[in-house]
From TrEMBL:
This is NCF1 factor. Residues 4-125 form the PX domain. It comes from Copsychus sechellarum. GO terms for molecular function: phosphatidylinositol binding; superoxide-generating NADPH oxidase activator activity. The gene is Ncf1. Residues 156-215, 226-285 form the SH3 domain. It holds the Pfam family SH3_1.
Length: 389
């Protein structure tokens, strides 16, 4: 039998999960060439990373060389905070994307990258759950929508942003901007660099120089997570501003707030500060393209360092002071330490109570007295009585 390949991918719906934190995963029914059918679960961020890698593997078919040659479908970048509404609205685009993907030339649709991504993983068969947390909520795609993709699929509309200041590009892959320029965002990278187009120009632009048209504060920007996500430093950085941190390659830190401009608030022990997101990698993940990206492009500028900002909004962006980050982060650490201490004390009390009982000699079971001959003759069966006669 030849190599495995995918015959069809069908979007079934999505799940709302609550462990280890609330998030959403899409459910796909993958039909293989051996007629087997498997259900897999993928987060949209995973799908988007898969999509970006696919474009890098096939630059001609992705339109990087000539836009007219593009056959790989578009996929909008993930929002910084994925709620249930955005997860639900994205289903049509995903269904159309999978349909187009499977019908691409075999060198793309049957390549190892595509096959590996949709193969069943251990987590697909045994999703990580916690009995104390609510069970996942399943939202299935209506059957009528599956039959007719046009009912759920609309055109992929690019978001339009406005430049708040002049920006001079520093490399050929970037794009210069003038204050007031209206650009369409093709791809949003969480490292703070967004790929934009302006008329016939295309290139990378710092997200810090762009503002949405409907308000000064990004609704996509997620709230701080003082529990923290563990990341590893991929490149050393020496602090320039007072609220930044100096770290060395290989350091382990916790990310507590992911900001749109690519400068994340991180925690090292009990110290917090800003650090370039593109110099960080999630612990346990292996990304070969990280090193090359660090060489090709430096950290984007921070919003607070941009001069002569001309915003169209009267109200400024909501900002959290570094003192607030430190105070809330310290509170969280102390709370966790207190909870661990209480748990340890309870465990010690239980052990101390049990120790005296464990040291006592165990009582031996009592041996019943042997029944008399008369009792056996009166109460036992014929078989038992015959043995004493």
């Amino acid at each position: 039998m030849g190599d495995a390949f995918i015959r069809h991918i069908e979007l079934l719906g999505y799940e709302k999960r609550f462990y280890p934190s609330q998030h959403y995963v899409y459910m796909f029914l993958v039909k293989w060439n051996d007629l087997s059918e498997k259900v897999v679960y993928r987060r949209f961020t995973e799908i988007y990373e898969f999509h970006k890698a696919l474009k890098e593997m096939f630059p001609i078919e992705s339109g990087d060389i000539n836009i007219e040659n593009r056959i790989i479908p578009h996929l909008p970048a993930p929002k910084w905070f994925d709620g249930q509404r955005s997860t639900e609205n994205r289903q049509g685009t995903l269904a159309e994307y999978c349909y187009t993907l499977v019908n691409l030339p075999h060198k793309i649709s049957r390549c190892l990258h595509v096959v590996s991504f949709f193969k069943v993983r251990h987590d697909d068969m045994n999703p990580v759950t916690d009995s104390q947390i609510k069970k996942p909520e399943v939202f299935l795609l209506p059957k009528d929508s599956k039959k007719n993709l046009t009912d759920i699929t609309g055109p992929i509309v690019l978001q339009t942003y406005r430049a708040i200041a002049d920006y001079e590009k520093s490399s050929t892959s970037e794009m210069a901007l003038k204050a007031g320029d209206m650009v369409d965002v093709v791809e949003k990278s969480e490292n703070g660099w967004w790929f934009c187009q302006l008329k016939n120009k295309r290139g990378w632009v710092p997200a810090a120089y762009l503002e949405p048209m409907d308000g000064p504060d990004e609704s996509e920007e997620q709230e701080p997570n003082y529990a923290g996500e563990v990341y590893t430093v991929q490149k050393s950085y020496t602090a320039v501003e007072e609220d930044e941190l100096t770290l060395k390659e290989g350091d382990t830190i916790e990310v507590i707030h992911k900001l749109l401009d690519g400068w994340w608030v991180i925690r090292k022990d009990e110290t917090t500060g800003y650090y370039p997101a593109m110099y960080l990698q999630k612990a346990g993940e292996v990304n070969i393209s990280v090193k090359s990206e660090l060489r090709n492009r430096g950290a984007p500028p921070r919003r607070s360092t941009i001069r002569n900002v001309k915003s169209i909004h009267r109200q400024g962006r909501k900002q959290i002071s570094q003192e607030t980050y430190r105070r809330n982060s310290k509170k969280y650490i102390q709370k966790q330490q207190k909870m661990q201490g209480n748990f340890q004390n309870k465990a010690n009390v239980i052990i101390e109570k049990k120790e005296p009982e464990d040291n006592k000699p165990k009582a031996q079971p009592a041996v019943p007295p042997r029944p008399s001959k008369d009792l056996i003759l009166n109460r036992c069966t014929e078989s038992t009585r015959s043995k004493i006669l």
